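hiii, so i know i said id send this last week but things got crazy w the move. better late than never?? heres the sequnce for the chain we talked about at the cafe, plus the structure i predicted for it. fair warning i was half asleep when i ran it
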Amino acid sequence: MTTLRPPRMAGLGPMLVVALIAAALYWPLMLAANVGPAGRTLASGAELDCRTALACASQLRNPVVPAPAQLAQGFVRLSTPVTSPLALPYNVGVTAGETLLGLLLATVTGLGLALLLVASRSFERATLPWLVASQTVPVVAIAPMLAVLLGQYGVQGFLPKAIIAAYIAFFPVAVGMSRGLRSADPLHLDLMRTYHASGAQTFRLLRFPASLPHLFTALKVSVTAALVGSIVAEISTISFSGLGKMLAENSRASDTVALWVIMGYGAVLGVTLVALVNVLERWVTPWSRR
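okay and structure toks below
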């Protein structure tokens, strides 16, 4: 008898295989990346506790790719004490807060725009090209300008980063939701018209439920965009906390081990936020489970 596994368990095997392959390739890739800088460091006459470039590849102070032991030391150094404003856990919390607030603002804005796009073809033809154009402006260029503009109205600190995150995260929600609202089955729409359902009833009972899978797909894209926007905003504006602030500081200090550790924290934060959206989707749309 064949035993069917749940979808999440079925996908766990391939993920573990990819993780094992990546772990197996890490050490040779680290040596290949560092052996050149190690050779140049030895040639410069620097005092190292090793004699060959290959032996020094895992002992460089600022390696291109850090050795596992260096990563572990960097993780402990940047993560403790946990409650310190200078430690990564505190700064991850700040960036996560900015990202979630930005996602909330993006969702409200995107839903409002989606309703208008679906309600009026004229509004869609007039505004959609401008919405697309707004996403072509690099956030690195627009973030300082927005920070200065918001600062003139007294909006400072946490909120400008969230607004900048919302700026690049609202578009997937608007497009995904408008497509979802139009995805209702025509036969079901005819049935609602047969029962003389009002526009509000058709929206509440048919169009909105049909759009939810599209909305959550868009939210998974938007939450990662909001995270990128938050980090870029922290780098581009005056920031006293957050992953972007730590990236900028350690980049100026050429601390590559710290940069790798911060990148790892950012990746874990991104995966966690997408997982939260997945959990919310499974709770709101239980009928979409396969």
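btw The radius of gyration is 24 Å. thought thatd interest u
miss u guys!!
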